[in-house]
């Protein structure tokens, strides 16, 4: 009689045991299929007890290598010394979860930025059995956010500089003009030259512009005849700040030559030459602006906005000299090539 009763009990328990094993297999399948997440369980001694496929892909250790090892191996030495793993566990116990937003270490020693949480694992009776850690590799997202932050900072910096230059152009143009119409024309032309330089830089992702490109843009912007302006020199890359400065400078020089200098008469011409001179520790950039065949030149009695702009813009990079010879205006620049090409050189002010 007893044997039949035991057999009946076994028959009743069999489907329950089978269902339990099926549920375990189902949960295991879910655990291993979550390959974008590292899912790690640890015991009360902070040693790894389970390690899914996502953890292997993200962190590099195989399950057989890591199970039984302290989970602290995935933390940086600095975080281990600071007690970060223990603080996460304390937060999981007191607050329900411990947030994980920090750098972690892969098996090969490389770092990645992780985002995740640590939660306490409890039995049906509420007894603490361990912890479950879930994290995801967010390195690419963090790098994108950092690039965006840098770009926004750089954009803000450029906008402020641009507004400062435009404000100076506007104020000084009104101050030196004889009429509203003259001021309006000067402002429009100068800002247009500045905008053209921005367009050139945008084509190169705001990294640089070549000297010959800036000269060509000046000729086109002012409608200068090619045979009246002779430009020559090697390929020289300029930083954005230097490119903007040269755009304004060449615009002022060409405008002045068109109104009063060599380009104001049919027989006149302008030569623009630049070269790079080797110098120990700091190569030099030489620029020459030479007007020929124009009216007799006389030194101005006072400096106008144009001459101040030229001198201020170029003196940020080197030594500037003017020669108001009767045969034509000559400008020379002896500049540091490093300053002209260094991205963080201070912006020239109008």
Would you kindly provide a written description of the structure presented here, covering whatever features stand out?
This protein has 350 residues and is an alpha+beta fold. It folds into two domains: 34-137, PAS domain (Beta-Lactamase, 2-Layer Sandwich); 142-341, Histidine kinase-like ATPase, C-terminal domain (Heat Shock Protein 90). Helices cover 49% and strands 23% of the residues. It contains eleven helices and twelve strands. Strands 2-1-5-4-3 form a five-stranded antiparallel β-sheet. Strands 7-9-10-12-11 form a five-stranded mixed β-sheet. The chain has a two-stranded antiparallel ribbon with strand order 6-8. α8 runs parallel beside α9. The longest helix has 38 residues, at 139-176. The protein is elongated and about 100 Å long. Mean pLDDT is 84; it is low at 4-16 and 345-350.
Q: Quaternary status of these chains?
A: single chain
Question: What is the alpha-carbon Rg in Å?
Answer: 36 Å
Can you tell me the number of structural domains? 2
CATH class type of the largest domain: Alpha Beta
The spatial strand order of the largest sheet comes to 2-1-5-4-3
* Number of helices, counting only DSSP H or I runs of 4 residues or more: 11
């Amino acid at each position: 009689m007893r044997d039949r009763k035991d057999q009946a009990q076994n028959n009743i328990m069999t489907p329950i045991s089978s269902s339990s094993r099926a549920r375990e297999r189902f949960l295991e399948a879910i655990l291993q299929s979550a390959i974008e997440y590292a899912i790690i369980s640890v015991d009360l001694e902070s040693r790894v007890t389970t390690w899914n496929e996502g953890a292997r892909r993200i962190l590099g250790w195989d399950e057989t290598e890591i199970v039984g090892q302290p989970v602290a191996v995935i933390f940086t030495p600095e975080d281990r010394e600071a007690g970060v793993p223990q603080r996460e566990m304390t937060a999981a116990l007191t607050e329900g979860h411990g947030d994980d937003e920090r750098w972690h270490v892969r098996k090969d020693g490389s770092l990645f930025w992780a985002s995740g949480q640590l939660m306490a694992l409890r039995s049906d009776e509420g007894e603490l059995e361990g912890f479950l850690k879930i994290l995801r590799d967010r390195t690419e997202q963090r790098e994108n956010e950092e690039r965006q932050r840098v770009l926004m900072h750089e954009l803000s910096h450029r906008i402020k500089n641009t507004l400062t230059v435009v404000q100076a152009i506007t104020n000084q143009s009104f101050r030196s003009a004889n009429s509203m119409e003259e001021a309006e024309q000067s402002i429009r032309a100068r800002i247009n030259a500045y905008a053209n330089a921005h367009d050139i830089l945008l084509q190169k992702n705001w990294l640089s512009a070549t000297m010959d490109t800036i000269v060509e843009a000046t000729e086109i912007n002012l409608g200068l005849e090619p045979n009246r302006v002779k430009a020559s020199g090697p390929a020289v890359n300029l930083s954005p700040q230097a490119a903007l400065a040269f755009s304004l400078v060449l615009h002022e020089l060409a405008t002045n030559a068109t109104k009063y200098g060599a380009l104001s008469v049919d027989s006149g011409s302008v030569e623009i030459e630049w070269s790079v001179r080797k110098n120990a520790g700091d190569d030099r950039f030489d620029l020459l602006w030479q007007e020929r065949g124009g009216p007799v030149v006389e030194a101005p009695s006072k400096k106008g906005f144009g001459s101040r702009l030229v001198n201020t813009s170029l003196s940020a990079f080197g030594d500037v000299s003017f020669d108001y010879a009767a045969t034509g205006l000559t400008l020379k620049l002896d500049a540091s090539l490093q300053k002209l090409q260094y991205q963080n050189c201070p912006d020239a002010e109008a």
